[in-house]
Amino acid sequence: MSDALAKLEAGVRADLDKIAHPGAAWLEAKTGPDGQPALDVLIVGAGQSGIAIGFGLMRSRVSNILLIDKAEEGMEGPWLTYARMPTLRSPKDYTGPDLDIPSLTYQSWHEARFGKESWQTLGLIPRAHWAEYLLWLRRTLDLPVCNGRELLEIAPAADGLLAAHVKHAEGAETLYARKIVLATGQEGMGGWMIPEPLRDLPASSVATVADDIDFEGLRGKRVAVIGAGASAFDNAATALEAGASEVHLLCRRAQIQVIQPYRWLTFRGFLRHLSDLDDAWRWRFMRKVLEMREGFPQPTYNRCARHANFILHEGAPVKAACVTGKGVELQTPRGAITADFVICGAGIDMNFAERGELSRFAGNIATWADRYQPPEGERNERLGRFPYLADDYAFTERMPGKTPWISDIHLFAIASTMSFGASGSSINAMTTAVPKLVNGLTRGLFRADVERHWASLSAYDVPQAVVARPARKTEEQR
């Protein structure tokens, strides 16, 4: 470790010591059915969101927590797997998992790691450096993380606890917790979409942008990318750079989307208070944002456009697809396109039943379609499938009373977007979204223990001062 990084870490410890008030412990662990102390909070996902949530809870003196992640250490999240852009797209000065502690910002880490001059000349943050920073953050904060643990199912347990059935290399185990947070990023409530016309294609000829694609194997091949968001362009560029003979990017819109709505909404009022609005306003704002879809920055487009064998097709949704002797033939309103391999960048659809961990209660998770009926001109079936969350990010029931225990399962992922706006998958929203979640978690833990706290107050008899009364002199002593 460099001297600068060691000095930074000492500064972090000093900063956190200065703002540690109040430091009193206020939770008592419940005992699980296995006779062991149950966790207060289990966080599923140890990527950027999980780290920030764990940090927020520790600062609130909720230390009986555990983060689990199915990936090996350092491989959490998309940064070193299916994120195929050279840099983050967010401006370098956006803060996030630091939760407004200056010494924990990416800038502080970068300057300690590479020098202040490097920061000054930096354009955007390399994604590999972001992954390294997150690992440093996790270790510096000493968060309790177990890697190689995959959540299989959540079920109710005795005494108001939740049972999380987890598998790992040695077998399986059950973790008991008072609350569970699903900090599961992009895929938390569904799966990556393969458009209907492509679902009967051979598995060897189609993939999603999140799959482990052998791009070297596409050298000399014709590639079609479905979708025109930033991830679609990233995959098109990766295929071009790997030596694909031609890459077709198919955009269903008549004109490609170049506006980035997430730039507009990056202000404290919206990030902090969208969720305080009524359903009509929340729906109106998020429908506008999500129907526009996320745009792409100029460097992302240029990365593709610099290749003469890149062809952009606008107004070209795929209507049908089949395998012929020449390859995969895609029928569009602009004509047929033939490819050897198809990559789908059509996004994620909500499908709770596809998630094994939700299978026990998937049918009773309330959606926006269950709770709000928008005006005729504002309806969107896809957005209606998003979960309708309580003000603490908890699931709500479609049929009240059927699965009441799901109010202790909190979702902090891209599927939180309709209820809270940019939150569970957005770096720049963390400094407002994570405290809102943490406050909801601690509120629930406090309310559940209110009788114990009342009993504790009633029995509290610790004197703060000793009153020594001087003896009064009697008449004879005078």
Produce a short descriptive summary:
The chain is of the alpha/beta class and 478 residues long. It is built from 15 helices and 17 strands. The protein is globular.
User: What's the total number of strands?
Assistant: 17
Summing up helix and strand content along with how strands pair, one would put the structural category as alpha/beta
Please indicate the percent range of residues in DSSP E strands (runs of 2 or more). 15-25%
Question: Major β-sheet, in short?
Answer: 7 strands, mixed
| Number of helices, where a helix is a run of at least 4 consecutive DSSP H or I residues | 15
In angstroms, what is the radius of gyration? 26 Å
Point out poorly predicted stretches.
none
Distance, first to last CA: 76 Å
What does the overall shape look like?
Answer: globular
Kindly state the mean pLDDT as a whole number? 94
What's the helical proportion of residues?
A: 25-40%
Structural summary, described in words:
The protein is globular, with a radius of gyration of 26 Å. The chain has helices spanning 3-18, 48-59, 106-114, 116-121, 127-140, 230-241, 261-264, 268-273, 279-292, 298-305, 368-371, 381-384, 417-420, 430-448, 450-459, and strands at residues 39-44, 65-69, 145-147, 150-156, 162-168, 171-185, 190-192, 206-208, 222-226, 246-250, 310-313, 320-324, 327-332, 335-339, 341-344, 348-350, 409-413. It has 478 residues and is α/β, with parallel strands linked by helices. The strands form 4 sheets. Strands 1, 2, 3, 4, 5, 6 and 17 form a 7-stranded mixed sheet that branches. It is built from 15 helices and 17 strands.
